[in-house]
Structures are given as structure tokens and as C-alpha cells.
Fold each of these.
Amino acid sequence: MALSHAAKTWWWLVHKDLLRELRAPRAWPAMLILSLALAMVISVQIDSPSDQHLELAGGMFWLAAFFAGTVALDRSFSGEHEQACWQGLLLYPVGPGTLFLAKLAANFLAFCALDVVLVPAFTLLSGVSLFAQPGPFLATALVANLGFSAVGTLVSALTSGLSQRHGLLVLLLFPLVLPVVLGAVQATRAMLVGDFSSWWRWIQLLSCFAAVFVALGTLIFDYLVED
Amino acid sequence: MTNNRQPFLRPTAADWRPEREAAPVVARQLTRAMNGRPVVARADLAVQAGELVALTGANGAGKTTLLRCLAGRLRPTSGEVLWFGLAPSPASHWLLGYAAHEGHLYPELTASENLLFAARMHSLPQPQQRVDEMLAKTGMTRYSGQAAGRLSQGLRQRLSLARALVHDPPIVLLDEPFAGLDTAGLAWLENWLRELRTRQRTIIFSSHDDQQCRALADRKLELQSGRLQTASLTDAYPPARCA
């Protein structure tokens, strides 16, 4: 029963975040435009022979995705602080772990939406089809997005109440998320060059990282949101 | 408490029987310091079921801080807060209805959606029905489809109160609930608070309006430089009931 209650409240929290974004888009458009701009700039600036594109495409793609994704992370809690809605949320009979998982899910969906827009755009710009191997690419994107969402949601919660949150978010996020960036870049590179044993090792690393941060966030979220 | 206390589950209203031996709201030697300065200092307080307590004090006296401590949202620097003899936790948040200055309303969502979200967070069995009841009770039915951010201050205040009380909690903490209400709104809220008292709800509200405190409250507590003191309700306005 308690699990069913937690699952229902989790869903309504995610639903609320998506509905708010739909009614008054504040994160997604900025994130998508930034990702396209970054992809374009990176593709134009990197002047390399076309045979090296397969090696570089993963790095270029994930760099654009992660930088643009910070916009969604920044807005995920700052929106809650208007009208002190976050204080209201903490007064509901909802476990802090459920709140964390709901915010994580909303951020995860934002990153998935980002990938949906960025993959075709990047394929056009770089001439490298990331979706040539749909299964491995989807697996890479899912675990990378999950890891990025888990770390990002934690850091965003930690910095959300602070006046210098924008700078601090980036400052704290990038060192922590480095293993995800590295893992996603290497997994994508391995996938594109057909080295699937290497790809599988990177996917395992990304999965472990995501699992650790999802578990950590669920356990410690109560302490992060305390006044 | 007599209700079955499963984690994160709220018993139905029919199950709810306030226990007499444990006061709904108790603060013992409650101190909350901010930047090393005690905003609330060694406050002792016990409020019974069916009691309506007014909390007064000058601006910055610590009313909001005390209410937030009582709501379990601010951890006391020392001392403790108990609801029905137990420390507040997310599992027991269904016991509390707390309306703050800020409203806790999502401006993009409609009045109805804000209430529906609150009802769902409390896992009410028929959320839409309860939302319709609350909209009718607060005179907000015709504004149900309007975004909360577009409502006037008075209507937002009504909606905020409805949000806080959508689950009919036994403990009601209201931070300046009369602010922004027009004459009709004031009368409506006074009646609502009296009705809640009749139904044995424990109510603590902060106010700057002495007349309202006299007219409504059973007891008046005054915060002066963080110290909680019992203030008299004048003879001209005797308290309805003393705890």
C-alpha cells in the first residue's frame, strides 16, 4: 500500500512538472535551442578529415547535450521556489525519496526530448549517423541520461536555495558528471567504430554510476532539502 | 492515536479520533536561532483539539518562524515539537494543514488543478469531488479554470487556504490568513475557522489585527523578541472557551 501510494504520488509529481512546462515553457525551449546552437558551432569549428568523424562524433554530441541539459537542471528546482511551492511540496505526506525520483524523472524526460531533437540535427551537421545502430545508441543514451539526471538533480537540489545557484550548479555539476560524459563519449565512439566489447564495458560503467547516484539521491535527499 | 499509522498513508476522516491524552500541538522549550540569534527562544506551548489560538507580535517578532517550526518545516535549534505526542515526519504530514504567506500555489496551473494536485498528494479517495467541494466552500467555483497566477490577491489567498485544508487536517496552522481578503472574505474565513473549531480542529493563526484575535480566538499568544507570552483577551471580548 505504501509503495502504491509512493508510486501514485511520484506519477502526479512528474505529471505536475510536465504540465507546468507545457503551460509555461521555461526550460525545454531554451535547452533545445542551446543544444542546436552548440551542435552547429562544434560541427563547424572541428575541422578534421571525414574518416576521423566517427571518432569525434560522440564527444561532440554529448558535449552539446550535457551543456544544454544544465538549463533544464537549473530550472527544475528554481521553478519550485516561486511562491514557495517547494515548501508546500515538503509539507505533503510524501517521502523525500519520492520527491527526488519525481524530479529525476522530469529531468530524464527533458534529456530524452533533447536527444530526440539533437540526434537528427547532429546527423545532418556532422554527417555521422548516430542512429545507425539504434539499439546500442538507445542503451547508451538511456544510461547516460539517467546518470546525468541523477547527479544533476542532486546538485540542483543542493544549490537551489542559494543566491549564486547558477554558477554553483555548473561548478559542482561538471566535476561530478565527468564519469558520465567520459562514459557516454567512449561508449558512443566504440559503438560507431564497431568495437562492441569496449562499448559494453562503458555501458556497464555508466549503469553502475547511474545506479549509485539514483540510490544515493533517494537516501540523502532529505538532508539536501532541509531548511 | 487510534488510527492505523502506516507510513505515508492517511486514514479516512471516519477513522480519525483525536486522542485526549496527547495535545495535538506541543512545543517544549522550542528555540530556533538564525545566524546565531534566537528568533524564537524557549517557547512552551500546548494547544488542544477544538482550540483556536491567535499568535500576535510585531513584524520580525518570529511568528512565521514559530509557525514553521510547529509545522515541522524548520528544525528547532533546541527543544521539540510534537503532534499528538509524536515528532513530525513526512509520514505524519497528513495531520497538518499549513497556509503560508506565499500561497504555495503553482501560477501556471488552474485553481482546480492546484487543489487537485494537493488532493492527490494526500491520496484522497475521491480527489475531484473533494476539489469541487472546496471550490464551492471558498466561493471559487467560477474561477476554477483560471490560472492561479492570474487570480487577484484575495482569491489567491482563498485558494491557498483551500489547498492547505483540502484534506481536512486535524491541525491547522495559518500564517496571516486574513491578509488580502476583502470584507466578505474576512467574514467567510471567520465562519470557516469557527466551523473548524466546532469540528475539534486545532487552529493556530498569526495576525496583526487585535480585533480579529479577540473576536475569534480562545487564547492569544504574543511573541516579543522571540519570547512567547500569553496575552489577555480583554473583558469586552471574552474568549469563547479557555483550554
Amino acid sequence: MDRRRFLADSSATLAGGLLIPRVLLSEEMVSGLPAGAVDTGILNALPGKRELIKRSFRPPNYETPVALFREELTPNDAFYVRWHTGVPDVSVAEWRLRIGGPGVKSPREFTREELRRRFDAAEVVAVNQCSGNRRGLFSPHVPGVQWGYGGMGNARWSGVRLKDVLEDAGIAPGALEVVANGADAPLLEATPDFVKCLPMWKALDPDTLIVFEMNGEPLPAWNGFPARLVVPGWTATYWIKALTDLTVVDKPFDGFWMKTAYRVPKGMFGASGFESQDTEQNSPITAIKINSLIVSPAPGTALAAGRRAEFHGIAWDGGSGIARVEVSADGGNSWKEARLGRDLGRYSWRQWRWDFTPKAAGPLSILARAFARDGSTQSEKLAHNPAGYHHNLVQKADYDVA
Amino acid sequence: MWRNLHVAVVLALLPAMPAIAADETGIVLSPGAGLDKVQAGCAICHSLDYIQMNSWFQDRAGWEKTVTKMVKVMGAPLTPEDVAVVVGYLEEQYGKTPPAAGTTGG
């Protein structure tokens, strides 16, 4: 019962205090969102978080303002929040991780301390990006949480390897997928519980982790305390929060959130790498597509003619790593290479910087595009799909030069 | 069983507990026929800003698809008659374009 207790809504902190929602400043606004999402996307602080852009109160879906992506690692209190149902309030004393199913030889159950003691520590810096990040920018719009650019973050994740835990239980012949469930549960019995699965190859990848910490601190409840999956390179739908159960199965898992939701048209984005979940028509969304973001100056900022402007951004992909970032100030006729920041590993985003001195007053558009080490680059034309996934259009940021 | 209990408890406590509902009660949907059914049927599981956030770009067929999914897949407790009323409200107030001023009755 304990894990079924749900955290009080964000308004708890507001009950006796200020209730005035702050609307976004113009430089915090994202152009292209549905008008209704602009109206309701207020700044609001969940307990323990700083002000983020509220998309929905319940379940809480909050995105990080782009300006906060200037930091190499996204601070925990600035990290975006995304839940399908209520946020579980889990006590570590009562929390257990259960490993079982027809695909393991000896079912196991561990406390957090047992996991830490029994298995080697492991960590990875990785981008966690919601599958629907930038859905709000789709044209024509598609229904769903209308995310702008901030349904993502980059963090250092620490815990143990999923592989070590599964191998400790013994993987039986015929093991096909690892089904992961968390303590979150829907209110109505009829609503499908949020449960996901991974193919064995991804579950056994040494970078796929069960983590207890992000950026050296315990996971916030909003981000999956006390333990969550980290599936580097794949979208965040697989990074099950408040993880409680790992079930190794020998047949394709057919829960709603795998079989029906989080799907992309077959072939539109290449092979899924998850054959047991592919159908004739569609595939599960899996690896993150190459993408980049201009972080500052914010679009709409006034720049001065004859004065050097510093453009800062980030670039990331599904794990091949960033080869280079190119920037154009002439509508894409010519491209210059930006300077890349530190390499924190192939799953981390890479900061970039480009200096440019606008010559004359007037409107200025800056384009940025990233290239991955696997040769892929961003889309110039939107690959429109019903659920609004994989928006990675080359960004155009408009400025006024005075 | 506990889930049903939960619904009853949440519904019973909503008006009395500003700590749970304060922000949400700040959400004001457009007045119009069917608003009561929307509040009763949709707000059990999610805040009503979901509706505002998803406007104004869905036509009747779009909202029908969403509401049908909420009933058939998510288990929203709406009768077929309720669905018709809710879809009508959504089309009218949160359809392709914002309702023209003065036509919403409030």
C-alpha cells in the first residue's frame, strides 16, 4: 500500500502562499506551439524543483526552459518531469526490486542496499529525452502533451548494470524481452498500467543501468526515486521510474504502452532494432535521432551590428556521438563549423559554440545542424507521424540586428 | 478494489482539499453545453489543462478519436450519450478555431 501513496500535487507549496502563475517572458516562449498550449504553459514550481514550464498539472508534465540548457549537465531541480499516472511516493525501507519470469533461472528480490553491495558500481552521462519532445512544433499539430524543446535533459546517472542483475538471476534459454514496471499505477482499474520492455541485446548492453542517483544526488521523486532504468540512446519512455519489477519473458510483451502506444510508421525512421515488437505497419520508437538546439542567445534577442555575438548550443544523438555541428547565417547557402565542447561520452549531449558578427541592421536567421558519427544528420523536411515523434528539423532562430 | 476506493476518496476530497486541487481549480474551461460532463468524466484522471493544451487544432473527428480512446482504452466512465455531449462541447469550444466572442454564453 505504501508505494501506492501519491505525492501531493504541486499546489501543496502554494496553498498558503502566492498563487499567481508567472507567464513566460517573450524570450522563454517557443514559437510554433498550439495557441492553447501557449496560454496554459505557465511557469510553476513543483516541490523541490525550480520553476519549469507547466504543460499539465496532473499527471505532472513540466518542461525545462531552454535557457537552462546552457549547463553541461542539467541540474536535478531543473530536470523535466513526465508521468502517465500519479507519482508514487516510495519508501526505500519498503522498496524491493523483483527479478523473475520464465526467462530467468532463479527469481530474485533485492533491497537497494543489497543491489549496491552485490553489484559493481556503474555510471553513464546520457541524454534523457521524451519521445514526444517538440511534439508541439508539429505542423499540422497532433494531439498529446504539447512539448516545446524542453522535454529533455542531460545527467550523470549512477547505479548498477542491468546486465549484472539479470545475469545474477540467470538468463534462461529462450529469453526474449525484459519487461519493466514501476510503482506508478493508474487510478482506474481499466486504465493500462505503464509498463515497457526491452529486447535482450539492449537490456544486456553494459551502458543500460538501474540507477539510484543523478548528478551525484538521489533521484528526485519526480524523476524516479528510488531507482529507475537508464537506457542510453533510447527515448525516455523506456527509462522506467520508481522501478519495482523486471520480468524476463519468452514471448513478445503485448501491454498497451508497447503494442499500441509509442509507435512510429514502419520504416519511416529506419530499423527499430526491436524486431520482436515490430508489426507489418509500425515499430516501437527506439533510438533518439540526431538533433541540436540553439540555446543562446534566445530567438528574438536584439543583436548589435558590428558586434560579435556568441551562439551557444547543444547537439546529441542515439549514441554514435556528435561528429560536428554546422551553423549558417545566410539561409543555408554556406555553413561554418561550430567549436565543440567537452566530450562526456557518446550518449551525452555535446555543447557547441559559434561566434558571429552581424554586419548590417535588419532581420537575421541562424540555422544549426548536427552530424553524428554514424553519418546521420537532421531533417530538412518534417517526417510527420501520428504521435508526433522524432522532431529533429534543422532549427532556424530569428534575431533582430540593430 | 483499492483503486475504486481511491476514486471515491479523491472525488470526495476534491472540493475540500485545496492542497490537492488549488492549481487545477485555477483552470477555467470555456462555458458551454456539456461542460459538466467534461468535468465529471475527464477530471477523475487528469487535469483539464490537457484540453486547453490541445487546442485549437482538432476538428470533430479529432476530438471524437481522443474521447473514444479515453473511454475504450483508458476506461473513462462515460456512457455513449455522455461521449456525444463531451465531443460536442470539445468541438464547439476547443475545435479548429476559438469560439467567436459572445457565442459561448459567458
